[in-house]
Design goal:
InterPro entries: EF-hand-dom_pair, EF_Hand_1_Ca_BS, EF_hand_dom. Keywords: Calcium. Pfam families: EF-hand_7 (PF13499). By secondary structure, the protein is mostly helical. It is built from 11 helices and 2 strands, in the order ααααααααβααβα. It has a domain of 110 residues: Recoverin, domain 1 (Orthogonal Bundle). It is 61% helix and 2% strand. The longest helix has 18 residues.
Length: 209
């Protein structure tokens, strides 16, 4: 059973839970909570020990990506340059992205080059913070009302935008519901990074198309 041909019948039979257990995730809720704790801790001082980190250059790069690749306008650029918003409150959104990225590296298993049909995004997401910034920019495209969250209806399209179209919609929606621990039908960016970390672990074991 691959992530590509996983269907309704497999979801109803609980096979997604079995697949998660095979990659070491016995409790998605605990996984997500640990992920969120690590992301929050990393975002407090995300650049300590990063000798090659240049905040001005990174912000400029992130802004350029959004303006040139995603055409998201000045309001989105303001978020990356510390203008505030729903995702980070008074914190710098870049710090939040960096924190989530560091948690991703720790929790994803970093199955780079696993060759399961995952495409460049799953292979490369652990390599640079710019990949997380791309993920955040696409995420904001699907945040239609600006509340810092996306819905289950968006998740399949989001994964397609990120080059993860090989993932069955039943896997995508099943993981969304599992990660949505408060059952309000929405995920914030850190939840989405946790979901992607789970997908990366599944991809290493079960592959895509």
């Amino acid at each position: 059973m691959s992530l590509f041909n996983f269907g309704r019948e497999q979801l109803q039979k609980g096979m997604l839970n079995q697949m998660l257990q095979q990659v070491g995730i016995d409790d998605v809720g605990s996984f997500v909570q640990d992920f969120r704790n690590e992301a929050a801790q990393a975002s407090v001082a995300p650049h300590q020990g990063d000798d090659d980190y240049d905040e001005d250059a990174t912000l400029q790069h992130a802004s350029g990506q959004q303006a040139n690749l995603f055409s998201m306008g000045s309001s989105m650029l303001n978020k990356f340059s510390g203008g505030g918003g729903h995702d980070g409150g008074d914190s710098n959104p870049l710090d939040m992205v960096q924190g989530a990225m560091k948690a991703y590296k720790m929790f994803s298993g970093d199955q780079s080059g696993s060759g399961g049909g995952g495409g460049n995004f799953l292979d490369n997401i652990g390599s640079t913070v710019q990949n997380a910034q791309k993920m955040y920019a696409v995420y904001k495209q699907f945040d239609k009302n600006g509340d810092g969250k996306i819905t289950v209806e968006d998740i399949e399209l989001y994964l397609q935008e990120m080059g993860l179209g090989f993932v069955s919609p039943y896997v995508a929606k099943g993981l969304f519901q599992a990660v949505d621990q408060n059952h309000n039908g929405t995920l914030d960016f850190t939840d989405l990074m946790a979901l992607t970390a789970i997908l990366n672990k599944l991809n290493g074991q079960f592959g895509g198309a």
